[in-house]
Amino acid sequence: MRRRLDAWVRERLPLEPLVEAVRHKTVPQHRSSFAYYLGGMTLFLFGIQVGTGALLLLYYRPSASEAYESVQFIMTRVPFGWLVRSIHAWSANLMVAAAVAHLVSVLFLHSYRRPRELTWVSGVLLLGLTLAFGFTGYLLPWNQLAFFATRVGTDMAAAVPFAGDFLVRFTRGGADVTGATLTRLFGMHVAILPMIATVLVAVHLLLVQAHGMSVPPGVERNAQQAGRPIRSLPFLPHFVLRELFGWTVALALLAGLSAFYPWELGTKADPFAPAPAGIRPEWYFLWMFQVLKYAPATLLGIPGEVLVFAGLGIGGVLVLLLPFWASRTDRWRRALVGVAACALLVMAALTVIALMADGGAHK
Amino acid sequence: MTTLRVVIGCAAMLFASVGVVQTQDRVEAARKAFEGDVHMAAGLQCAACHSGGGDAAASSYAVERTRIAPMCARCHSDPAYMRQFDPQVRTDQYSQYLTSAHGRDMARGELRVATCSDCHGVHGVVRASDPRAPVAPLHVAKTCATCHADRVRMAAFGREATPFADWSTSVHATALLKRGDTSAPACSTCHGSHGATPPGVTEVANVCAQCHVREADLFRASPKKAIFDGMGQAECLVCHENHAIHQPADAWVGLEQGAVCATCHDASTKGAQTINGVRLGLDALTRGLASAESVVERARRAGMLVDDARVMLQEAREHQIQARVLVHTFADKPFADVAAKGLEAVQRAERAGEVALEELQYRRRGLAVATLVIIGFLITLGWKIRRLAAPGS
Amino acid sequence: MGDRVADTGPARRDVLNWLLGSWLVGVLGSILYPIARYLVPPELPEAAPPSVVAGKATALATNSGRIVAFGTAPVIVIRTPSGELCAFSATCTHLTCTVQYRPDLEHIWCACHNGHYDLNGRNIAGPPPRPLDRFDVTVQGEDIVIVRRT
């Protein structure tokens, strides 16, 4: 009976090769193998976002007159609604952190090398998508802070040469941030971005499975010199159980954060109210915010904002296409790590400055 | 000899020209100020007031202080003339002024008292309804204070110079100057403007009752009215002061030191029981409200839904306000009923706050259980991983 | 205690797997329970609405008023002596007592300090410093519907 059922399933679900591949998959083990868990952690948090996001959709209403009230309703009247929303908000932040950590570790371990160029590109695109998720989701509760932050954030697009005005209108769905913007960002947040994300995540995972885990060049060389194979860990169950351990810790962390620091709702957005003190974007955009503050009004006749955006744009393209221009010499790689570390430090410092300036403004 | 005459002549001319220059400056300044004047807008010229002098002597331009009010009254007491500028205009200012303390003194030839221009300005007069006017609600107290807060000037009339300072500490000044509530009273609201004179003992309650109608009604219906009248006491002022009217405190009701009732009453007098009963009721409400508010606030800060509790708190506060008004009945009954209703609302609010806090505890306990389960799982998982590590490596 | 069971390797692994499974059920339970509770609709099926129904239009007699809850704030609906409907925030602008309609005076009155408002919500006597906020009233079918002015 059981054998027949087994056979019936196997015939209709030809997963045998996949199961076999997973069974033989191994993960290299070395000093930096913790980095292999960061992608999985990002994936787990993405899964939480999909789950809690779907739950929030049951009660959320995407209109300027009802959005705030419906979120308030979720937070106060729906059983465990406070938990679902707080987890969604906290997990979004942790996911950005995990995705950035994943990217940085891949960069530092040079895992973007041939033949994994496309994995890197899809990964960078996914990070951009994560930030877009954060930006579009920020406005959805329609509270005062998010309203003004979105107004400032979308206004920055105006600095883009030629297409600036169009971009502002495109993101806002009109000349100003209104109910139309809310509906628009909502549509992006729950339909368009998830659609793209699903495809990109599938491609990314497929590529990861196809190429297997990358071994850092240094580790590879050491193993070659010593003439012994690189130690490895079976994917199933060793690696999966370790990953599960990390996920469970993340889950406990999310539950604790949500219970003790429930995500605030603030007051309802009022387009005619004066901008509240301390408007600021989400923390992961703060460094850009701070750079804009330092930008000179004009330099050589070009507006400072345009210069900043040009710089950021060039930087973004360089990061996206990193595997195609990165040289393979050791010295060059060390230089790249140094430059990346400096860039990260500067970004962190800018974020801290912005946070401290904001803290001062509250006093 | 001739030289001396020339020198003297030159000196005389020099002095004369300095005088002329000074006069010219003053005329110029007056002309400038007059450009924003409501009279200028109405088409009046300098000569409308300064008609006395055709000659250049400076002194002849100035209008004597005693003649200022009659001069203004030439137009302002003429309804037919004034109507062309404002159909609603009042023309009784001068007749009121004549009845005021200022006007009576001025009629006796006392030049140190106020006349029209002292409050409304000289050149550059604006409408009284203009917010910039020195008699506009936000400025009028300061305008009165230029004389009435001057100790030396007031001493000459045997008057205190304290009213402005006293009023500045009052709830009325706070409402007017801090909150910008222009319906709050300044000097002229109680004393009148053109007919300004201190209200007498019997009039005071009528003045207060202009706004505090309910308190006045309750007071007049109470036994206190006849007693205070018999003693020649100015009703409201006995407890609330005249200028330094402060936020009333529950502690005013009572028999101990500092309570206003204690001025006349002690434990042996009639009404001691009522006084104590009212005080107990007020204190119970205040304490209950504070305690319920803190419970509800704690729940709110923890992110709990406390809308219902806040509605109940609001209800309780309303009863507290009513109860405080009902103190003016100086009787047990209506007060006790309202205070009881307030206390009942307080208890409901506190209960609702406690329910919210219990819900919070429930959440925390739920989290604790979930965390325990997760930690148990993690420990077992860690154990499992360590067991697996041996064959794997 | 662990060392004693270590001798019997497979038996210990079974115990471990069973234990792990049980804990996993617990973890899944603590995830699924909130989700299940979340999915059950709450007693109040909707968020605070931007409008409320203030009873039947026919039930509000001429020259009378009624207090209704708008979210958590009271609103007073009045049918004026001339038969028109109007609605105001019922929170007195003086010290936030709830106002009422006085048929004898034909206007709105606050009992706390004898504040008076006319049928346009203007403070006409007593201590209230500001007029009452006005709400829009429409009649839909039989019902009076109050909408907050934006």
Radius of gyration of chain A equals 23 Å
Q: What structural category do the secondary elements of chain A indicate?
A: mainly alpha
At CATH level 3, the topology of the domain at 23-224 and 231-267 in chain A is Cytochrome Bc1 Complex, Chain C
Measured between the Cα atoms of the first and last residue of chain A, the distance is 73 Å
Describe the main β-sheet of chain B briefly.
none
From the spread of the alpha carbons, the general shape of chain A counts as globular
Instruction: Name the quaternary structure.
Output: heterotrimer
- Straight-line distance between termini of chain B: 134 Å
Unreliable stretches of chain A (pLDDT < 50, length at least 5) are: none
Q: What is the typical, i.e. mean, pLDDT of chain B?
A: 84
Number of helices of chain B: 19
Features:
heterotrimer; A: mainly alpha; two-stranded antiparallel ribbon; two-stranded antiparallel sheet; 15 helices; 3% strand; C: 150 residues; alpha+beta; Rieske Iron-sulfur Protein; four-stranded antiparallel β-sheet; 2 helices
Folded structure, characterized:
The complex is a heterotrimer of chains A (363), B (393) and C (150). Chain A is mainly α and 363 residues long. Chain A is 71% helix and 3% strand. Chain A has helices spanning 2-12, 16-24, 36-57, 67-76, 81-108, 117-139, 144-156, 164-172, 179-211, 217-226, 235-260, 286-294, 304-320, 322-325, 330-362, and strands at 26-28, 232-234, 298-299, 302-303. A two-stranded antiparallel ribbon of chain A has the order 1-2. In chain A, a hairpin with a 2-residue loop joins strand 3 and strand 4 (302-303). In chain A, helix 4 packs across helix 5 (81-108). Chain A is globular and about 70 Å long. The termini of chain A are far apart. Chain B is mainly α and 393 residues long. Among the domains of chain B are: 62-197, no CATH class; 204-246, no CATH class; 272-357. Chain B contains 19 helices and no strands. In chain B, helix 17 (272-301) runs antiparallel to helix 18. Chain C is an alpha+beta fold. Chain C has two domains: 2-39; 51-148, Rieske [2Fe-2S] iron-sulphur domain (Rieske Iron-sulfur Protein), CATH 2.102.10.10. Helix content of chain C is 24%, strand content 34%. Chain C has two helices and ten strands. In chain C, strands 1-10-9-4-3-2 form a six-stranded antiparallel sheet, with no helix packed on it. In chain C, strands 5-6-7-8 form a four-stranded antiparallel sheet, with no helix packed on it. The longest helix of chain C is centred in the N-terminal third of the chain and has 31 residues, at 9-39. Mean pLDDT of chain C is 83; it is low at 1-7. The interface between A and C is medium-sized, with 19 and 16 residues.
